[in-house]
Amino acid sequence: MCSPALIRNAHEARLAGARRIESWGTGTPRREFLHVDDLAGGCVFLLKHYSGEEHVNLGSGQDIAISDPADLVCEVVGFRGQVTRDTSKPDGPPPAS
């Protein structure tokens, strides 16, 4: 999962010249990610145009492995070392049902 702690760890590891950082879980669960501006726009649209009683799921429609954003963070901060996975730790919160 791409937590603020992982962002900080990747940045600090790059500055320190570390060879690896650790991430919790397997990184294999898949999740949808949605930018807050897209969520806000969807909410405004629904407030203006939807009056039904059924739930509406706002999402991107594309799921990615939760390890992908972590790898992207490492690339962006310039950390070129290895990301090891501590599989004894949880993969993050369970998906919403």
Condensed summary:
Helix content is 39%, strand content 16%.
Describe this structure in words.
The protein has 97 residues and is an alpha+beta fold. 39% of the residues lie in helices and 16% in strands. The chain has three helices and four strands. The strands form two sheets. The chain has a two-stranded parallel ribbon with strand order 1-4.
How would you describe this structure in keywords?
two-stranded parallel ribbon; 97 residues; alpha+beta; elongated
Q: Give a quick account of the main beta sheet: strands, pairing sense, barrel closure.
A: 2 strands, parallel
The end-to-end distance, rounded to whole angstroms, is: 19 Å
Strand content: 15-25%
Number of helices: 3
General form: elongated
Roughly how much helix do the residues carry, as a percent range? 25-40%
Q: Identify low-pLDDT runs.
A: none
- Helix and strand string, N-terminal first? HEEHEHE
SSE order and pairing:
Blueprint: H1 4-16, E1 20-24, E2 30-32, H2 36-49, E3 63-65, H3 67-77, E4 82-86
Parallel strand pairs: 1-4
Antiparallel strand pairs: 2-3
Helix pairs in contact: 1-3
